[in-house]
Amino acid sequence: MKKMFLKSIIIFVLVGVSAGSSYEGYKVYKVTAKTEAENDFLRELELNPEFDFWSKVNKIGKPVTIMASTSVQSEFEQSLLRNEIDYSVEIQNVQKTIDLESEYHRSRSLPIGRIAFDQYLRYGEITAYLAQVAADNPRLATVSTIGESYENRTMNIIQISDGNGRKPVLFIEAGMHAREWISPALALYIINQLVENESNRALLADLDWIILPSMNPDGYEYTWTTNRMWRKTRSPGSECWGTDGNRNFGFHWMENGASDQECEEIYAGKSAFSEVEARNLRDILNATENVLGFISLHSYGQLLFYPYSYEVGAVPDNWKELDELAHKANDAIAAVDGTEYTIGSSTEILYPAAGCSDDWAMGGAGIDMVLTFELPGGGPNGFDLPPERILPVVTETWEGIKVIADYVAQKAK
């Protein structure tokens, strides 16, 4: 099944789905594997640039969301039917969904430095909000730069602290993959709740917070101006643009689940830390004392997992502790509106992906408590959540973040 299908579609591969900015006629499928052989088939498809996997290949019975270009849809559907693989079409025309999203944002505007959680923010609006928060709350919030992106955009972090003595630090990184707009939105909601909601000030009593709301500002802006589905950084290569920042970190770099082919979505870069954005995160973590917790925010798939990603079966010594904490966070999230996350080690619930920021945070920076969220997705509304779903998702996820934060704070005592 697998080899015959791949051979039949390879003639259509020219530049791949990420090369252009129009997705007219592209469809999105929800495919559910019933056997491991069917999952292996899907993993092979991930290597083909005519397919864009919006959620990760998961355990048997867990649906996978896949965008397919017009050139391969017919053969793809025939192959699924021929091999009795369950599927449905979630989006008939991706470009129509993108156009509707763009029209919505063009119809709305915010005063500079303000925020709302019924719309996504451009990168300039994110930096303006951070500056306004710091200006309005100088005793709690401090904004600083950790460097610049490849295209010279300032990468800002915000440190939130009540200033009462040395405390453990929880570091939150968001926006690694450009198209995952809900990730920076959640980071901004966390900032908003810590600084502008006085009922949450107790969360600063035993813990300092550092939040990087946009790890990939160049790619993020590119999703607004040119290609909504862009995932990687924007550094140039000899054939294709960009590196997967979440394969570029120097802990077991390029060992498994990463590519040395620069046109692939999981291209790991010319070398470990070849991307300035990855170096900036590395350097700030190395320079910050007492970082005991690290959270990486992605979308989508409703997954909550812990290291390691570099090899199947590799887990840290404290994996049971991390697993228990993840379940407690999931319970808090589910109590809001019933949303449930799949929990486990990265390779247990996904697959190998060497060079990730969470692996490096634990194995490279020595941070003890490391978790990664794959937040809920948009389903039939597009790759990311429609604006009216931002607030419900960030609100429920905040409850899980608080559980993790409290654990990190108490663990340090």
Q: Termini separation (Å)?
A: 56 Å
Secondary structure category = alpha/beta
Using the alpha-carbon principal axes, give the shape. Answer: globular
**Percentage of helical residues?**
25-40%
Give the low-confidence spans.
1-20
Please tally the helical runs, counting DSSP H or I stretches of 4 or more residues: 12
Assembly form of the protein: single chain
Name the average pLDDT: 90
Strand arrangement within the widest β-sheet reads 5-6-8-7-9-12-10-11
Q: Could you give the order of the helices and strands? A: HEHEEHEHHEEEHEHHEEHEHHEH
What percent strand? 15-25%
Radius of gyration: 20 Å
Report the sheet with the most strands, covering strand number, pairing sense and barrel closure: 8 strands, mixed
The number of distinct β-strands equals 12
What attributes characterize this protein structure?
alpha/beta, 12 helices, eight-stranded mixed beta sheet, 413 residues
Topology readout:
Layout: H1 2-9, E1 27-32, H2 36-45, E2 51-53, E3 63-68, H3 73-82, E4 86-91, H4 94-106, H5 123-136, E5 141-148, E6 154-160, E7 169-174, H6 182-196, E8 208-212, H7 217-225, H8 276-287, E9 291-299, E10 303-306, H9 319-337, E11 342-345, H10 346-349, H11 357-363, E12 369-375, H12 390-411
Parallel strand pairs: 7-8, 7-9, 9-12, 10-11
Antiparallel strand pairs: 1-3, 1-4, 2-3, 5-6, 6-8, 10-12
